[in-house]
Amino acid sequence: MKRPLCPVALFYIGRILLGQWLHPPLIGLFAFSFVCALAALLWKRGRIYLLQSLLVLVGWTNLNWHSAIISPNDLRLLLGDEMEAVTVRGTLRASPMPRIFERQGRELWHSSVVIDAEQIRRPGGWQPAFGKIIAYAPGLLSSNFFSGQSVEVAGVLGPLPGPRADGLFDARSYYQHDAIYYQLRTESVTAWSVGQETPPRRMPLSDRFTAWARKTLALGLGPEDAALRLIWTLALDWKAPLTETVEEPFMRAGTYHIFAVDGLRIGLLAGIGVGLLRFLRLPRAFCGLLLIPVIWFYVAITGWPASAIRAAIMMSIVIVGWAGHRPTDLVNSLFTAAFIILLWDPAQLFQPGFQLSFLVVFCIALLLPLFQNFFQSWAFKKDPFLPEALQPRWPPPVQAAVRFALDACALSLAAWLGSIPLAAAYFHLFTPVSVPANFLVVPITALALMSSIGSLLTGGWLPGLAILFNHAGWFFMKCIIALSHGAAQWPPGSCNVSTPSPVTFVLYYLVLFLVLTGWIFRSRFKRAAALAILGLGVCWLAQRAAENKTARLHFLPLNGGSAVFADNAGAGKSFLFDCGNAGAAELVVRPFLRAQGVNTLDSFALTVGHVADAGGAEVVLTSFSLPHVFLNPARDISSAYRKTIDEIKPAVRWQALQAGDDAQGWSVLHPERAVQFPDADDNALVFSREINGYSVLLLSTLGRSGQDSLVEHHPDLRADMVVAGLPAKDEPLSEPLLHLLQPKLIVIMDSEFPATRRASAKLRQRLATHNVPVIYCRDTGALKLTLWRGGWDLKDASGQTVSVY
What we know:
By secondary structure, the chain is α+β, with helices and mostly antiparallel strands. Helices cover about 50% and strands about 20% of the residues. Helix 2 (about 25-40) runs antiparallel to helix 3 (about 45-65) and helix 14 packs antiparallel against helix 17.
């Protein structure tokens, strides 16, 4: 068999996926695995089938083993879904990871680390505990906290949260693949203390090396700046400086991958080593014996990140084959590495880094030779009517340079094609600019990494030379920053996209692997493959047609404010009502809209004169194209809100709305013309629209006087779905208004914090007397209402159904 490890890895991966959805008793899986292994030893004729079955069971058992409850002291049994103030004793699985967060122009430091819990103290005293906890601390923990250290931490322990809105980061799903189900929040670093150990544990080599290396890489560079911080990230995998502001241009340019200790960094390190050792005319075997320990030492000193381990395993397999003069097959090596990694940790299959790394390398292995041949045959095209001796020839240096450039372009294109669906799923970006950007950035990254390695090799005994290397590395990093920022600012270079459906994923990669490589035209299974592609294509078209007929309304509680986003709800396809304050708009609304694939908001309305609902307008205006902005006509007494409105008006085309106006298909029902109430809530804009046969009413935070005015001026008003916020002084949905509307669904846009924005027990009791489903955002978080002809459903941000019709 040409690639023997490919079917083995695929069998194993398939059973890991099976274990993700089916969870039989762990003891039964172990028993079946043992019986299957014993039968394979004894029954020679059926051994091949039994070994295949054993692969199925091993993958299944391995995944369930990592997630099963095997201890009576498991945190899931002790705590359930409750949050408690506790003290945790345990051991740090790694050294704390510092990160910088930017808030209103200030840098705030936070630390996070995974703790292996051993005991927890609750009101009843200390008790044994088992499980992993992700712990957070505001500020920087001291150097006394490091991998393997015993600690005691006081804080609030509770389940990991789901996403704040549809498409945003889901900590619960992300960490559960690492068997982490709980988080510990602490108020300050004073809540952390080091356990008493005799003798005291020594700081790990990786921490000591990182501290020394940061000082060495900073020699001669003066004050700490963004370029120096990113050199530390590039060379040492120090993630602290990767704030959202720093990350965004690299993400949009498609060059962010250079800051992960992944295949690219390990590949560059191996390439530098091979080039240097072969220049010294050392034999391949000796090169391999030197390079593999160096690669694993680099992985160790960067703290054993999973991405580095994956890349090191892959590179070690490739180097062993190369050093042993064996024929290299990148696809077989890739599947070998995947099998080894998933034997070590099957949950890696669900990590974005694993999926991106292996799919990109797989695409490079399949597509790079095709692109290289195409580009070089185009660039060095020969005249078929001339003999070989008379063909025009390039000068050798020019030909070598052109071939290198074409190979780099082919590599960048193959990697980009392999990453498109996954980049859309995890980063919500489509970045065609990444092909030319990486063509320039990756070689400069190699030079920056070479400069850093030179500095680290000479910093201890020849600091003058290390300073020269540092200046070179700093210059190359400034070039990388400038190129990435320039590529990110090119308007057609990137755009926001929503998460592709599973059908889109499968169809894309089938076409890429089967059609683009030409396999489908050579294989004896061409008819079956063509039918599979055709069937998936029909499913994709049907799915798109159904989506185009479906409208979606998203309700976002924003800790004191709220926002409603209407998508595909008729003319004016996307409409945002309010946006929360500046912090909420930056942390929730902007990433949420990007996750929905929004690049241009068709309309944006500020419904009420509160900074809590409208203070983030500038964030929305600077992040998205906006042809229409609608404002509340009332002049509010809030100076902060007036300042927000005064900043908006010169920047966009705006219109003040009143009852009777039409706002891109939405009817304005309140406030009435020439009527102004003293309270901002009573002047709130009220919108109504019929969507796919259902009438939707958005009441904003309409106060009691405004509700009475609405009842008076619209005595025939009805609404199937009513969405209401909490007025500052009154209750939403007075009894006269409820009797008038006769809704089928009520959504109350309250939130957990601050406490004044929670629906009162009195309001809940009153609304419960009506035979209508009432959903409170404080209980469910963000919600998505999907409307189609003949039905609707309401789901939370995790995709769980809250209500259905």
